[in-house]
């Protein structure tokens, strides 16, 4: 187990280095001078001396390899530098917003699992009958509706018409735990709807595949109750594809919650990324993309370790 984890950790470190290098190169290949773009006002060309002074301040006058070396050195010290726009510490802003996005995505994943997994098992056990047809149709509908439509309808109906919940916003947990949970639950449930449908479909297919195996048929022939068969012989073997789907979706959601955060006015990391792109704040964009990519790599590392716990044969693959 330890050797397997060490190998995966080494691969993860190489991937993070590759992402950091790629992001650095892509940012520097974008046409235009960042200093000129920051100083340009109303389409008027900035003063050359001001541009030169800003380039020196930002280190853009250094050779590319020197900038790359300094970039990697800063990352090793977890120093993301200062914003080009207002000179606030980028690391502090990420540290403030990242837990909010992680909480949002984590709660969405939990809700999707709690909903999709049992309903997928139910659909598999009632294949061809009414529950299976209803659940399959509902999953197809949930997957076809865009997340921003679900969020907008939730705000319109639950918040503005029924007044059951606030329309959006954010309150720190320490300030008001109940209101904090309510404000996070709405966007998390919006994200979880489509994810739960995906989990339901994958669980249904995986359970149906496991039910056809010989050891499960033998358990059925012995007269074991369906609940016992699912718990002892089916569920663990069917979890691999479910974990894979959750990992892929949660990884993409780390940087893909922009629309949900916008609809619910949720101050997470994705909204921060949009603002940085609009302002052409390259250090901010670089830092945010790198953090999201590193989290995606870390998530995949954790999923690999989960595979080993579910099926020890994976470590020998």
Automatic annotation (TrEMBL):
TM stretches of this protein: 9-30, 104-127, 134-158, 178-200, 238-265, 285-310
Cellular location(s): Cell membrane
Main localization (coarse): membrane
GO cellular component: plasma membrane
CDD domains, per database record: TM_PBP2 (cd06261)
Keywords: Cell membrane, Membrane, Transmembrane, Transmembrane helix, Transport
Record membrane topology: Multi-pass membrane protein
Annotated Pfam families: BPD_transp_1 (PF00528), BPD_transp_1_N (PF19300)
GO terms under biological process: transmembrane transport
Residue intervals of the ABC transmembrane type-1 domain: 98-303
Family designation: Belongs to the binding-protein-dependent transport system permease family.
Protein name: Peptide/nickel transport system permease protein
